Amino acid sequence: MRGQRDGVPKHGDKRRMRIGLLGGSFNPAHDGHLHVAKLARRRFALDQVWLMVSPGNPLKPAHGMAPFAERLASAQAMADGRRIVATAIEAKLGSRYTWATLTKLHRLFPGVDFVWLMGADNLEDLARWQRWRSIAAHTALGVLPRPEHNMGAMAGRAAHRLRHARRPARAASRLAAAQTPAWIFLPAAQNALSATALRAAKSAASANEAATIDAATRSAINGEGQ
Ligand SMILES: Nc1ncnc2c1ncn2[C@@H]1O[C@H](COP(=O)(O)OP(=O)(O)OP(=O)(O)O)[C@@H](O)[C@H]1O
Ligand SMILES: O=C(O)c1ccc[n+]([C@@H]2O[C@H](COP(=O)([O-])O)[C@@H](O)[C@H]2O)c1
């Protein structure tokens, strides 16, 4: 939601604060999140990026989701508390749907220009989100590339429907102040990490450890090594 048509502050206007919102499950947070948060902050000329921990992604099953406090703690461990900030605000606002959270944030912080940040995998899926057109109508979208999702995202339904609102990457530093709808796909260095891969590695490691303990217990019971 922008007051000025061209989004350029008038001479003498106080510069509005610019905050990027990286909403996510953070189950757990990882270097891929930090990579996109830093990249987005720099290229979209943002004052801060909030790692906004979701109380529960409406499209993801609750099964396998770590408790909110644990996910928040993992995001806090990635943040520096100054430029990259982990926040529980979405849970505090009592919303789970992004359109509802953004409506509340725009109301609570009228002096802030928010940019909704997401990896290409989320743009690929955006047309399944509740009121996704309203999200794009009122909040600028900054899309970060992600291995194996870029082609699908750009060929997807949301990118197609919003094609008139796409801005070139060279306008990235002005995205936060742009008249909405506006979105940018940022070509940039990519990071292949995912929470899914981390969870799989962790459960493989604990299965391995369990097998080792099991083998050691069996050999102790059988009196081996005496
Ligand atoms: N490596 C990455 N590159 C680009 N974007 C990423 C990357 N990792 C996470 N993101 C983005 O960060 C936001 C939060 O992601 P999320 O917490 O779901 O992590 P994830 O690794 O995608 O998790 P999962 O594998 O469990 O789906 C999303 O917009 C997602 O697209
Ligand atoms: O509002 C929706 O319908 C909606 C559907 C899917 C995902 N989201 C949001 O998208 C963000 C990324 O989610 P995730 O689980 O991929 O990290 C997070 O803030 C979710 O709440 C939102």
Automatic annotation (TrEMBL):
Its EC number is 2.7.7.18. The keyword NAD applies. GO terms for biological process: NAD+ biosynthetic process. Keywords: ATP-binding, NAD, Nucleotide-binding, Nucleotidyltransferase, Pyridine nucleotide biosynthesis, Transferase. InterPro entries: Cyt_trans-like, NadD/NMNAT, Rossmann-like_a/b/a_fold. Signal peptide: none annotated. One of its GO terms (molecular function) is ATP binding. Residues 21-200 form the Cytidyltransferase-like domain. It catalyses: nicotinate beta-D-ribonucleotide + ATP + H(+) = deamido-NAD(+) + diphosphate. It comes from the Bacteria. Pathway: Cofactor biosynthesis; NAD(+) biosynthesis; deamido-NAD(+) from nicotinate D-ribonucleotide: step 1/1. HAMAP family: NaMN_adenylyltr. Catalyzes the reversible adenylation of nicotinate mononucleotide (NaMN) to nicotinic acid adenine dinucleotide (NaAD). PANTHER family: NICOTINATE-NUCLEOTIDE ADENYLYLTRANSFERASE-RELATED, PHOSPHOPANTETHEINE ADENYLYLTRANSFERASE. Belongs to the NadD family. This is Probable nicotinate-nucleotide adenylyltransferase. The lineage of its organism: Bacteria, Pseudomonadati, Pseudomonadota, Alphaproteobacteria, Acetobacterales.
